[in-house]
Amino acid sequence: MAKPPSIVILTGAGISAESGIDTFRGGKDGRGGLWEQHRVEDVATPEAFARDPDLVQRFYDMRRASIQTRQPNAAHHALARLEQALPGLVPGARVIVVTQNVDDLHERGGSQNVIHMHGEHLKAWCTACDTRIGWTGPLIDRPPCPACGSAALRPDIVWFGEVPYRMDDIHTALSQADLFVSIGTSGAVYPAAGFVRLARDRGLHTLELNLERSQGSAWFHETRLGPASEVVTAWVDELLA
Ligand code: BV8
Asked: Which residue from 87, 112, 99 is spatially nearest to 240, judged by alpha carbons?
């Protein structure tokens, strides 16, 4: 594969599956995804938060605690290796990870250029003063906002019906890229699921690395199937060879 100077990599829950973090929709193993334990409308919408804030806070407290016991897997490390090594092979080359995931495994795996378009488990957002702050503990007991003292902290997560973060930066990155790679996502949720079409419209080469075919597979020039720890590592090795 030719070495492209600019790569946008979209990741979804599948890249963290082998780290032990539930995906949202059951994968091949059919063990059931995260949403199947909790109905989406019960936990990941502003309406649910208004209706039953304790349920939503507990749901995110559980996941915020859980991800801190997980480790990045070979796929996360491979993407970090690509980000570090490619500029040495192609002067000025850039790799950006646009993740739908709210865990911090890309960062702990060594990636530095990461956009969390759906927010982050390890951040809290004060609905009184709009401050966003790193947060590792629970929110169920309504701790005071460190900035304004109000008991108004919510998870800094983009729920259904809310606007994803940094869409302008994502569109800019897509407009300047040569290659779009999608890893571990079912292509079920927009606007992320639409990025492959934007990429094709802009003439990018498009590659999908996933455990199984997704709702967007037909839009990719190439799809490689298998667990991320294997197919992502093999792809990065091939690119850096
Ligand atoms: C918005 C944070 C306006 C929460 C998430 C009708 C038509 C089109 C769109 C809509 C519609 N009705 C409503 C909408 C909009 C809605 C939407 O798309 N709904 C869907 C259900 C139809 N979207 C929104 O509301 C978004 N906001 O549209 O605002 C706007 C838009 C643009 C510009 C301005 C304004 C906000 C959506 C964000 C919701 N928040 N996450 C939390 O985490 O609790 S979404 C959540 O699910 C994820 O973040 C991710 O984005 C999404 C999909 O999950 P995936 O990551 O793909 O995971 P999934 O389990 O589905 O798939 C895993 C894949 O991995 C599988 O393919 C599997 O095979 C694979 N896999 C498994 N194991 C492995 C593996 N692959 C490799 N290796 C393995 N080992």
From this structure: 87
Residue 21 in domain = yes
Q: Write out pLDDT tens, residues 133-185.
A: 999 999 999 999 999 999 999 999 999 999 999 999 999 999 999 999 999 99
CATH number assigned to the domain comprising residue 223: 3.40.50.1220
CB of residue 184 inside a 6 A radius of ligand 1: yes
Q: Give catalytic status of residue 118 as yes or no.
A: yes
Both tokens of 238, joined, read 């091939």
pLDDT of residue 28: 46
Domains held by the chain: number = 1
Does residue 1 lie within any of the structural domains? Answer: no
Q: Please list the alpha-helical segments (H only) found in the chain.
A: 14-17, 34-37, 40-43, 46-51, 53-67, 74-89, 105-108, 167-176, 195-201, 228-240
Check pocket membership of 190 for ligand 1, CB cut-off 6 A.
Answer: yes
Residues of the chain with pLDDT under 70: 1, 26-37, 40-41
Residue 97 forms part of a structural domain: yes
| Alpha carbon of 194 to ligand 1 centroid (Å) | 11
Residue from 76, 77, 106, 118 carrying the catalytic annotation: 118
